[in-house]
Amino acid sequence: MTAAPLVPGPVTVRVPAKVNLELLVGPLRDDGFHTLATVYQAVGLYDDVTVAAADDWGVSVSGALADGVPTDASNLALRAARVLADRHAGAPAHVSIRKGIPVAGGMAGGSADAAATLVALDRLWDLGLDRDELEEVATELGSDVPFLVAGGTAMGSGRGELLAPVLARGTYHWVFALADGGLSTPEVYAECDRLRAGTSVPEPVATPALMAALRSGDPHELAAQLTNDLQPAAISLRPDLGATLEAGMEYGALGGIVSGSGPTLAFLVESNEAGIDLAVALTASGAVRDVRRASGPVPGAHVIHQRID
Ligand code: C5P
């Protein structure tokens, strides 16, 4: 009797969220994107993305944060699957996303799912792609998709997709305040342009003091360097964010910023214990819909399970 051939079964990839420690927004380019100088940190809020061979392409979303994620062809994970399939003649697959990253929250949840899908299909189809090729496909899908493949701490230039490593010591503890509803990234960039109309916007350059803070491993130093040029725009569209930022600082955060294009707020705290205290205080204040604690940096998209049928 001959054994049945091994068939690659479903592959599950875990992918983190990101926070921008510094997000400097330069001029609007001709292609509709802005030149950025940013420093990303991957933080331990995760989506788990499972891909499995199927008769047809499809995507499904589960988890407490699943509301608002499209399950049609506009889903970024499904788009990632189709792009990779076009390049490598991949067979149809179903993508199942278990959301632990806030949706439309400025933490790159959609980009994370796209990054995870690429890594998972690379394994399912046994493509053996190296990091460079994965990041190249990732660039087609969105400005911060390459970073979610890479993880850790990295500098992003261009429209955010050109990555360079950053030397970072230590582990940083964060409390994320989730808001009701999301913010549209293009709308926040457009509001940023509107607020800056008539001013001259320089080419952005990452701040040496932020790099020094990351080398020190001291959260107090990092807190003093947190910067987000999109913050005034996000607060202009969602004025309640300003009051919540103030509340977080009053309750003991070392620093607080709007995460990416918002509306999630990221508070840096001194320790895990300080994070618990801040999370309790913010929840009790009623100012936030929900809170999540996480630390960073953490690795990018990586396989956590593969079944062999
Ligand atoms: O690259 P991604 O699809 O995440 O970008 C979403 C939108 O955010 C873009 O269509 C653009 O409006 C805005 N954006 C930008 N400049 C960047 C990145 C994003 O204006 N560097």
Describe what this molecule looks like in 3D:
With 309 residues, this protein is α+β, with helices and mostly antiparallel strands. It folds into 2 domains: 171 residues, Ribosomal Protein S5, domain 2 (2-Layer Sandwich), CATH 3.30.230.10; 125 residues, 2-Layer Sandwich (Alpha-Beta Plaits), CATH 3.30.70. The protein is 34% helix and 30% strand. The protein contains 10 helices and 12 strands. Strands 1, 2, 3, 4, 5, 6, 8 and 12 form an 8-stranded mixed sheet that branches. The protein has a 4-stranded antiparallel sheet with strand order 9-10-7-11, with helices on both faces. Helix 1 runs parallel beside helix 2, helix 5 crosses helix 8 and helix 6 packs antiparallel against helix 7. The two termini are 18 Å apart. The model has no long low-confidence stretch (mean pLDDT 95). The structure holds cytidine-5'-monophosphate. The site of cytidine-5'-monophosphate has 12 residues, from strand 2 and helix 5.
